[in-house]
Amino acid sequence: MVTPGYGPPMSPSIDGAGLPYRGTFGGRRPPAVQALALPPGPMPARDGIRPLKAWRYVGVYAPELMLCVASVRIGPARQSFWAVWDRELGRLHERTTIGRGPVRLSPARVRMTDGEVSIDLVLGEGAGIETVCRTGGSYAWTRKQGGIAAVGAVAIGGRRILLDARAVVDDTAGYYERHTRWRWSAGVGRTCDGRGVAWNLVSGVNDPASDSERTVWIDGEPREVGPSRFEDDLRGVDGLRFAPEAVRERRENLIVVRSTYRQPFGTFAGSLPGGVELSEGFGVIEEHEARW
């Protein structure tokens, strides 16, 4: 797990930083990139008037159920959310909380108890890929892990569901522009020849033509893919067709922060970038617009 620290306000310089940059998290960064304030070290609380926006999102996608758990910071403000899509009973459980709430995300662990729903999972985390990209006159860092093991249990009422599934983890920290809009898809599945796959596709943030966060993992090996094109109705991205099943959506107007998002859970068919044909796929597509 990467939890960005909050250093004193300052203006990080990206002049001559050689951005965008893409590499393995924990690996040797070029000196110009290493000179930036980046995780696992602390990042400044703001760049000029832009507060640091940081989050950790864990999505677990399986045939029996799909879930997500996240913790978010925008400057000093915190928010957390969780959702469980119970595919067997066709019921979506979810809650968003201002503040820390019931979500507990620690290294390689996801825990949450809220009313009749509890989640306790162990994650098989690895290094993941990291990118550092420009956003306006500043920069944003992200680390993505795809197709990692998620093992544990989810309890819903009196039912206890054992999970041995695959997950996508998104750790992000950056000084995004005041008005930011993006589309994103994350999922896991299996190819027609039996290989395990995962993906992280995006348009709108961290998406230069190369050295982006866009990644497809095949049997655990990551490779970058080209720019993504999302359908306006969120029914597909690139060669993937998406069938939504349950929709998380929310509108918030907190004066200083306003956001609108829509994130359906569902299934995927078709082919990943590079022509890799899916036999099954589970995950999400998201559209998010924020003034923060």
Task: Describe this structure as you would to a colleague.
By secondary structure, this protein is mostly beta strands. Helix content is 1%, strand content 63%. The chain has one helix and 23 strands. Strands 2, 6, 7, 8, 9, 10, 11, 12, 13, 14 and 15 form an eleven-stranded antiparallel sheet that branches. The protein has an eight-stranded antiparallel sheet with strand order 19-18-17-16-23-22-21-20, with no helix packed on it. Strands 1-3 form a two-stranded parallel sheet. A hairpin with a 2-residue loop joins strand 20 and strand 21. The two termini are 24 Å apart. The relative contact order is 0.16.
Average the pLDDT over all residues and give the rounded result: 94
Shape: globular
- The tally of beta strands, per DSSP, is 23
Beta content comes to: over 45%
Low-confidence stretches: none
Give the gist of this structure.
By secondary structure, the chain is an all-beta fold.
Relevant terms:
single chain; 292 residues; mainly beta; 11-stranded antiparallel beta sheet; 8-stranded antiparallel beta sheet; 23 strands; 63% strand; globular
Secondary structure: elements and pairs:
Blueprint: E1 6-7, E2 21-24, H1 31-34, E3 43-44, E4 46-47, E5 50-51, E6 53-61, E7 65-74, E8 77-86, E9 91-98, E10 103-106, E11 109-114, E12 117-123, E13 129-135, E14 138-156, E15 159-174, E16 179-191, E17 196-203, E18 215-218, E19 221-224, E20 236-237, E21 240-253, E22 258-272, E23 276-291
Parallel strand pairs: 1-3
Antiparallel strand pairs: 2-13, 4-5, 6-7, 6-15, 7-8, 8-9, 10-11, 11-12, 12-14, 13-14, 14-15, 16-17, 16-23, 17-18, 18-19, 20-21, 21-22, 22-23
